[in-house]
Known about the structure:
Elements: E1 2-6, E2 11-16, E3 19-24, E4 27-32, E5 38-42, E6 45-49, E7 54-58, E8 61-66, E9 69-74
Parallel strand pairs: 1-9
Antiparallel strand pairs: 1-2, 3-4, 3-6, 5-8, 6-7, 8-9
Amino acid sequence: MNVEVITPDKNVFSGTASMVKLPGSDGEMGILDNHAPLIATLGKGTIGLDGDSKTFDIEGGVVEVLNNNVMILAE
């Protein structure tokens, strides 16, 4: 699936991943291929891509999942 991690300053990551782990505001969540459409708020924590091979620390944000595209707007 296509993944974008965007902060107010820059586009931090743009590429593909088979799994995305996110710090949801109500707990950790995982996104895999063909996930149902979703919009959720994120809490402080770490975004992990492909089994934590790439990680990004965030202070919060929003994620949108639609048609195998994951857009993360992070602080």
